# Entry
Amino acid sequence: LGINAAKGLYIAGLDDDDEFSPDRIFEFTRHYNPEFSFFCSGYIYRQNSFQKRVNCTRKDISLNDLLNKNHVSNQIFIDRSRLIECGGFDESLPAFQDYDLWVRLIEQYGTARRLAKPLYVYHFQSTNSITVSQVRIIGAIRFYRKHKELMSKSQQNNFLVKLSLMREGRLTFRNLRRYWSFRNLSSLFKYFVNYNLRKRTVV
# Structure
């Protein structure tokens, strides 16, 4: 509704519990180039007193890049007409709506550009409820079914590993054997360390 009601040339999304840097719109308009499907930026992840900079390198994001990993995060700056022409957010997805839209936009309009400067502050809100987890899993499954044909075999396996982590909270040896390949071995090792070995050190 907000996108269709907007009168400006561009759309810049903002979640209600996050914040823009004071110069976010200025930086996007200064760098804007219609050759790119949309623009995004690095951001600051903040959880209570902890914070870190994420994705703070300039990157031109291709469809192949995006299917490997969501290099965009959850907000973009885009020509409003493109967002409408692409069909906007897919409301049939209970989660992964952002990621789905980025895939469709890059597929239709080409490479996106990420600015290195962190122009967004993401405030982490804990959502550990069973209901929220189930919604994310359903969204992930529908996203995978929708875009599976765009993915290479290794990209499919990477996504299925992430889905397994959402479902089971850890990477099992069964799934490690099932989804590994030479192309995604480094990613699998990272997942295994982050979700298995790290948990064993928690006291």
User: Anything to note?
Assistant: Residues 198-203 have pLDDT under 50 and may be disordered. The radius of gyration is 18 Å. The chain has nine helices and seven strands. The longest helix spans residues 130-147.
